[in-house]
Design brief:
Layout: E1 6-9, E2 13-19, E3 27-31, H1 39-56, E4 64-70, H2 76-92
Parallel strand pairs: 3-4
Antiparallel strand pairs: 1-2, 2-4
Amino acid sequence: MLKSGLRLKGDAVSLTFLPREDEGPARVGFIVRRKLGPAVSRNRMKRRMRESYRRAKLSARPACDLVFSAQRTAEYREVSLAVTGLLEKARERGHG
């Protein structure tokens, strides 16, 4: 999925997405690498990405796979804007 999907890069978060053939709901994953800091920071970043997606998921297309990857640690507001912007870009390309 990470190698064959299309990738959109943001400042704090990037999105890799791949449309599926079935009509099921979107499947979503979140990646935070160890180099971003200790477990507390990584878990906080993952929670921020999860909550941002939960609030913006209506703009995501069903039947696609989405993987959000943290590029660096960021505050919730910045993460939320990045996730929303990436979902809109993916929708514009007809995939997200």
